[in-house]
Amino acid sequence: MTPVLDMKVALVTGGDRGIGRAIALRLSSQDIFTIISYRKREDEAKLTLELIKSKNGKGDMIRADISSKEDVEKMVDYIKSKYGGVDILVNNAGVGFSSKFVDLTYDSWFKQIQTNLTGSYYVTKMLIDNMINKKWGRIIFMSSIAGIYGAEYLIAYSAAKAGLIGLAKSLAIEMAKYNITVNVVAPGFIETKLGKSYFEWLDSIGYKDSEKNYISLIPSNRLASEDEVSSVVSFLVSEEASGITGQVITVDAGASLMPGSVYKRA
Question: pTM, whole model, 2 decimals?
Answer without folding.
Answer: 0.92
